[in-house]
Design a protein that fits this description.
Blueprint: E1 16-18, E2 21-23, E3 30-31, H1 33-45, E4 63-65, E5 69-70, E6 77-78, E7 83-84, E8 88-89, E9 96-100, E10 104-108, E11 113-115
Antiparallel strand pairs: 1-2, 2-3, 4-7, 4-11, 5-6, 8-9, 9-10
């Protein structure tokens, strides 16, 4: 049995060794063993959450809202520049669980906040 990894792009098992690269005949993707190790390490560490400017977010961070947001079910608006303290990161459609003074518990997307 050989030690050739599956393709990281399409998960094909028909990859082959071509010198210093592995090649996938199904999708044409070429990759190195280092690239496979990096992808598997990232998958084992879990998802990485980034704000609107690419900064990595962690539980307990303070973030700032970067655009006005309509709050569903009310006529109120969450204004740009609102600081949100002690966020919790979670999976799903909205990545941030938080409490905002004056609004209560809320879920936000990472694409509408920046790290403070």
């Amino acid at each position: 049995m050989s030690n050739i990894p599956n393709c990281p792009e399409c998960a094909s098992e028909y990859t082959y060794d071509d010198g210093s690269l592995f090649v996938c005949p199904d999708c044409g993707h070429e990759f190195t063993a280092d690239a496979v190790a990096a992808v598997s390490k990232e998958a084992s560490d879990g998802p990485v959450y980034k704000d609107a400017f690419g900064n990595v977010l962690q539980d307990g961070d303070t973030v700032t809202v970067v655009k006005d947001l309509k709050v569903g079910g009310t006529s109120e608006v969450l204004k740009i520049g609102t600081k949100v303290k002690n966020i919790r990161l979670c999976g799903g459609d909205h990545d941030i669980d938080c409490k905002i003074p004056g609004f209560g518990g809320m879920k936000l997307k990472t694409s509408v906040v920046k790290k403070a």
